[in-house]
Amino acid sequence: MAANNLKHALFCAIVTLIVAYPILGLNLVASGTEIVLEGATTQTVISVLVAAVVVFLFQLFRDNIMALLGQAPALNSLANRQPMEQSKRLKLESTILTLIIIGALFWPFFVSRGSVDLATLVLIYIMLALGLNVVVGLAGLLDLGYVAFYAVGAYTFALLSQYYGVSFWFALPIGALLAATFGLVLGFPVLRLRGDYLAIVTLGFGEIIRILLNNMTSLTGGPNGIGGIPDPTLFGMEFGRRVKEEGNTSFHETFGIAYSSEHKIIFLYLIALVLAVITALVIRRLMRMPVGRAWEALREDEIAARSLGLSRTAVKLSAFTIGAFFAGFAGTVFASKQGFISPESFVFLESAIVLAIVVLGGMGSQLGVILAAIAVTILPELAREFSEYRMLIFGAAMVLMMVWRPQGLMPMRRIHIELEKQE
Amino acid sequence: MQDLLYFLQQLINGLTIGSTYALIAIGYTMVYGIIGMINFAHGEIYMIGAYTALIAITGLAALGIAWLPLILIVALVCAMIVSSSMGWAVERVAYRPVRGRHRLIPLISAIGMSIFLQNYVHLAQGSRNIGFPALIEGGFRFGSADSFQTSISYMQITIFITTLICMSLLSLFISRSRIGRACRAVSQDLGMASLLGIDTNRIISATFVIGAALAAVAGLLLGMYYGSIDPLFGFIAGLKAFTAAVLGGIGSIPGAMLGGLILGVAESMTSGYLSGEYKDVVSFGLLILILLFKPTGLLGKPEVEKI
């Protein structure tokens, strides 16, 4: 056994070296027209060697380490903790949520402009993640082209305002409904497909939308995007220094206060906050309604759910459409916040980030998803020097979560009875 | 006559690209055939193969070695070793622990791995695209000099021949060797195969290694053909190869070859007669249509859902 372990450990260490050294240790550098090979710093080489040694030692003493880990009390106590009572838990959750919302309402008046802007982005991601949570977390349909619906929302507003001068408040429902229609039309044929095929088809769909946006230059401006998207107005009051549209008044003149560019940013933040809260509440309601129960039933066991008379297509389609609807919402807010959109903002990576948020937060759990959205958006901003490692860490985190804790950091819990183990 | 020559040119280009798609598609189809998961990180393994090949070529050039066959063989071997180690490690780290869980879990793990590998290369080698030396130059031309000429470059011929050799070796390996026989047994019935004394874990690892090695071959060939590589170029190629695998019937090796060729020709016809920008739309559209109307693909076996 020991000899076998040693052989395996050596093999793993060698593979680590092969996998890490050529890519990390030998850098291709362009010098003029030639490409030359440069050795990496000694630090990199040493860390590669250290990694190989660590892998070797871990594989050699794998059984012992695993046994030790299994005994560690801290890990086990968490796993076996009894879930809180449902009523108590709900109360706690709603108290926390109310406190957060109240805090969020007053917070922007005391902080800098940059943080409010970032917070708006966080709220947009919360909307997206809550919407995707319905599709992936509740209904169990892996949608990798979610960003397409986000793009539909954003481009609807951009195009409507460019060609017809439609304002934010009209475009918001139109964008969301159009995104939902896209979801419905796409969902109808593809929802018959099995889980992983569905993932690939939605991914293909997302790419097609992006390529079309990129190439229909006459309509969408192609890669140059669309600029000059108007800001939202408050009952016809604009937030600019001068009124752009006839018939509108400006916010600072109406209230007789000095003009400040911060007003607009705080207003956008508040809109995003209200929309995010609406999204959360609507989905929270839906989860407790028969349709929400049906999503979960179909996710858990499709055959059993169908034999109980649930229509597979109708249930899946409703989840897909509702998810798309909220993506359209988020897209409209995004277009308004940026003032400029281009296909660059709607690449597959965006879908992957939203998916990572849902997975990290715990599929199906609203609070978990909200916290994950905050963490995923803010952490890279806080640790600027690590920002280039952001996606690397995302990818690793997704893998590790699936391996160790596929239910997410804050999994959804519901009332359940477990059978006592019989001796 | 000129139309015919133009058509021939598109056909040749399509078959060239298509045969490399087929090489990558083998990796998808073998893995799917055995454990029923989409190895989303396969495109990245192909990209890493291309990078390793370029590193080897540059390294040899720095050492002053200029004999072309030696350069090609060394680059190929290096790329295959690194890629297959990568394939093995990826399976070990990201897929084996989640095997047998709910369908979505391995898929999400694979997407995470794909993002990780993309950024791993991005951080180590930079995000710019790097020029890949065209080691094989020149070619044949047909047609009169004053009108359209159909050309076949030596590079295209190399791609054809290499693919053909790889495919024949793979077929031989699958049908004759002990491991190949075990692969077929495992893909038919994993549980039964392990009852009969086949080390299924080893066979699954072997599948990943074989798929990754073929992807590395494709990485070297396409790197030379396109003339530049960047950390993101595995993603689209991976999707295309997956499309090819589905088109031919996922799980079927001849299907992957056929699917790759059809997809390559469809793409080059689109760029030749419509517009190059829409070739991705055509291949993704093709993928969606096939999944909708014939999910088993051209040569796949229908899957029976057991209750």
UniProtKB/TrEMBL annotation, chain A:
GO cellular component, one term: plasma membrane
Ranges for domain High-affinity branched-chain amino acid transport system permease LivHM N-terminal: 5-107
Keyword terms of this UniProt record: Cell membrane, Membrane, Transmembrane, Transmembrane helix
Compartment annotation: Cell inner membrane
GO MF assignments: branched-chain amino acid transmembrane transporter activity
Topological relation to the membrane, as annotated: Multi-pass membrane protein
InterPro entries for this protein: ABC_transp_permease (IPR001851), LivHM_N (IPR021807), LivM-like (IPR043428)
Membrane-traversing stretches: 41-61, 90-110, 122-142, 147-164, 170-190, 197-213, 265-283, 314-334, 346-379, 391-407
Keyword Secreted attributed: no
Full protein name: Leucine/isoleucine/valine transporter permease subunit
Organism for this UniProt entry: Marinobacter lipolyticus SM19
Gene name per UniProt: livM
TrEMBL record, chain B:
A GO MF label: L-phenylalanine transmembrane transporter activity
Transmembrane segment boundaries: 20-38, 45-65, 71-90, 102-121, 154-174, 203-226
Compartment annotation: Cell inner membrane
Signal peptide: none
GO biological process: D-alanine transmembrane transport; L-alanine transport; L-isoleucine import across plasma membrane
Membrane disposition: Multi-pass membrane protein
Pfam families cross-referenced by the UniProt entry: BPD_transp_2
CDD domains: TM_PBP1_LivH_like
GO terms for cellular component: plasma membrane
UniProtKB keywords: Amino-acid transport, Cell inner membrane, Cell membrane, Membrane, Transmembrane, Transmembrane helix, Transport
Main subcellular localisation: membrane
The family this protein is said to belong to: Belongs to the binding-protein-dependent transport system permease family. LivHM subfamily.
Protein name per UniProt: Inner-membrane translocator
